[in-house]
C-alpha cells in the first residue's frame, strides 16, 4: 500500500536521507508558505530530535516506523512548553504545562512535531477564517477557504509541509477540510483516542483525528494514538488494525446512502451527479446498494449546534483571564471578566457562547436543550437500525465546493449548513473517513461504532475502484 511514512522510514534506514535534512526541508517549506497554516514553529525541538535519530541510525540502532517522521499539530492540543493559542486573542501567549495523551503517544513512538497549526478559534468554524493568524488558504486554489476547523492541518498535509497532521473533529472539522484539500481525514469512533489535553469544544463529540495522503498512513497513526487512558474516562481499549486486514473488501456485502442527502435542494448539481456515478460503479462490482431514510439536514444541523453551543458555553466558562488567558483590567472584577471575554473571544466564539447559554437557561433548557438530547438519541437509534441492514454508509462530505475566502464570514447560517452531511455521524459517535475520490470534495465512509477497521477496508476498495 502507498505510505509516505514507510517510504521515509526506509530512506532513513538505508541512509539515503538524514532525519536532520528532512526536518530542515519541511521547516523551510513551512516558513516560506503563504497559506497561513503556521501558528508557531517547533524548530529548535524538532532539529534536536532529528539529530538524535541520525545518531541512532549512524550507530546501527533500530528505529521505529514513526521515528523521525515529521508531523503537524492543530493548535488546540497541549504540548508542554509550546504556545497553545487555539488561534485566539485570549490564549495568544499561553504555554502548555503538559502534553496531550494522543500527542505524547506519537512522541513516544519517535515522531517529530514541527508546527502548531492554524485553525478556527477554539474550533468554532467551518473555514479556518475565525483566527488571529489570517484565513487559511486552500491548498488547491488559494482564493478558496482551507476548510475548518482543522484547515491548517489539512493544507499542510496536502502541500507536503508535514507527512501527517493531527486535527480535531467535533462536527466534521477533520473530514471537511480533508475533502476541501483532497486528502484523507479520519474521525475515529468516539473514545478510541484519548481527548486528554485537547481543548474542549463539545465534549460529547470531540475526537482526535489524523490527516494524511494515504489510508496506510492513517492506519499507522491511528494505531499509535488509540487506547484506554485513565485521564479520559470515555476511552476504551481497541485492537490494533493490521494492514493485511484492510487490504481487501471481504465481508462488505451491502452499502447504504441517505436519499434525502442526495435529493436535497442544497446539494450542488455536480456533487450529486458525481456521487450517483460512484454509486453505480460500486453496484457494478457486485455490492448491493440501499437507499436509506434519515433525518433532514436542517434537523441534524439544528440538533448538533444546539448541543455543541451548550457544551462550548460550559467548557469556555473557565476562560475569564483569571486562571487562563489575557486579562484586561477594568473598574471592578465583574467588569474585568466581561471586558476580557468580550475583547478576546472572536465574534463566532461569542455567538456560540451566547447561543449555548441561551439554550441552557431557565425557561429554554426543557424546550430546546432536552429536545436536542432526545433527538440525538433518536439519531443514534436510527444508525443502529441502519447498520443491521448495511455494512457501510456512504455520503458526500459537503453539499457544495469550498467557498471563496470572506464569503462564510458574511453568512454564518450558510457556514453552519455546510456541515449538514458531517454532523450526523458526529452525533452518532461513528467512525467516519473522508477519502479524496468520488466528488470534488471527496466521499465520506461510515461504519457502526468500534468498526474503524471496516471503514479503512472499504476506503481501500474505493481507492482501486473509483
TrEMBL record:
Residues 32-456 form the Amidase domain. GO terms for molecular function: glutaminyl-tRNA synthase (glutamine-hydrolyzing) activity; transferase activity. Keywords: Transferase. It holds the Pfam family Amidase. It comes from the Bacteria. Transmembrane segments: none annotated. The keyword DNA damage does not apply. Belongs to the amidase family. PANTHER family: GLUTAMYL-TRNA(GLN) AMIDOTRANSFERASE SUBUNIT A, MITOCHONDRIAL, TRANSAMIDASE. This is Glutamyl-tRNA amidotransferase. The lineage of its organism: Bacteria, Pseudomonadati, Bacteroidota, Flavobacteriia, Flavobacteriales.
Amino acid at each position: 500500500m502507498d505510505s509516505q511514512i514507510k517510504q521515509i522510514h526506509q530512506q532513513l534506514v538505508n541512509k539515503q536521507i538524514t532525519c536532520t535534512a528532512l526536518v530542515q526541508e519541511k521547516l523551510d517549506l513551512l516558513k516560506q508558505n503563504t497559506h497561513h497554516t503556521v501558528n508557531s514553529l517547533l524548530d529548535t525541538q524538532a532539529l534536536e530530535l532529528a539529530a538524535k535519530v541520525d545518531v541512532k541510525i549512524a550507530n546501527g540502532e533500530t528505529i521505529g516506523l514513526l521515528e523521525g517522521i515529521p508531523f503537524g499539530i492543530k493548535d488546540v492540543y497541549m504540548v508542554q512548553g509550546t504556545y497553545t493559542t487555539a488561534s485566539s486573542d485570549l490564549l495568544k501567549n499561553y504555554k502548555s504545562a503538559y502534553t496531550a495523551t494522543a500527542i505524547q503517544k506519537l512522541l513516544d513512538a519517535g515522531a517529530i512535531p514541527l508546527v502548531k497549526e492554524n485553525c478556527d478559534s477554539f474550533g468554532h468554524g467551518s473555514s479556518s477564517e475565525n483566527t488571529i493568524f489570517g484565513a487559511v488558504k486552500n491548498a488547491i486554489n488559494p482564493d478558496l477557504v482551507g476548510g475548518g476547523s482543522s484547515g491548517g492541518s489539512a493544507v499542510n498535509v496536502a502541500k507536503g509541509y508535514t507527512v501527517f497532521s493531527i486535527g480535531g473533529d467535533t462536527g466534521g472539522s477533520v473530514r471537511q477540510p480533508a475533502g476541501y484539500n483532497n486528502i484523507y481525514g479520519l474521525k475515529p469512533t468516539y473514545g478510541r483516542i484519548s481527548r486528554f489535553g485537547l481543548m474542549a469544544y463539545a465534549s460529547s463529540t470531540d475526537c482526535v483525528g489524523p490527516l494524511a495522503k494515504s489510508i496506510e498512513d492513517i492506519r499507522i497513526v491511528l494505531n499509535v494514538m488509540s487506547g484506554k487512558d485513565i485521564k479520559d474516562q470515555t476511552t476504551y481499549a481497541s485492537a490494533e488494525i493490521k494492514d493485511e486486514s484492510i487490504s481487501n473488501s471481504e465481508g462488505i456485502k451491502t452499502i447504504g446512502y441517505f436519499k434525502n442527502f442526495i435529493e436535497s435542494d442544497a446539494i450542488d448539481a455536480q456533487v450529486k451527479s458525481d456521487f450517483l456515478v460512484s454509486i453505480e460503479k460500486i453496484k457494478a462490482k457486485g455490492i448491493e446498494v440501499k437507499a436509506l431514510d434519515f433525518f433532514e439536514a436542517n434537523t441534524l444541523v439544528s440538533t448538533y449546534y444546539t448541543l455543541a453551543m451548550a457544551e462550548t458555553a460550559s467548557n469556555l466558562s473557565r476562560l475569564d483571564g483569571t486562571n487562563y488567558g489575557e486579562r484586561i483590567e477594568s473598574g471592578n472584577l465583574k467588569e474585568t471578566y466581561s471586558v476580557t471575554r468580550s475583547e478576546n473571544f472572536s465574534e463566532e466564539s461569542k455567538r456560540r457562547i451566547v447561543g449555548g447559554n441561551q439554550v441552557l437557561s431557565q425557561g429554554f433548557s426543557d424546550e430546546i436543550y432536552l429536545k436536542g438530547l432526545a433527538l440525538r438519541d433518536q439519531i443514534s437509534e436510527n444508525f443502529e437500525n441502519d447498520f443491521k441492514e448495511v455494512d457501510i454508509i456512504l455520503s458526500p462530505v459537503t453539499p457544495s465546493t469550498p467557498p471563496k475566502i470572506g464569503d462564510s464570514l458574511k453568512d454564518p447560517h450558510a457556514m453552519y449548513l455546510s456541515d449538514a452531511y458531517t454532523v450526523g455521524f458526529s452525533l452518532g459517535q461513528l467512525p467516519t473517513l473522508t477519502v479524496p475520490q468520488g466528488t470534488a470534495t471527496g466521499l465520506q465512509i461510515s461504519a457502526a461504532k468500534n468498526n474503524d477497521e471496516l471503514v479503512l477496508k472499504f476506503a481501500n476498495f474505493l481507492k482501486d475502484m473509483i
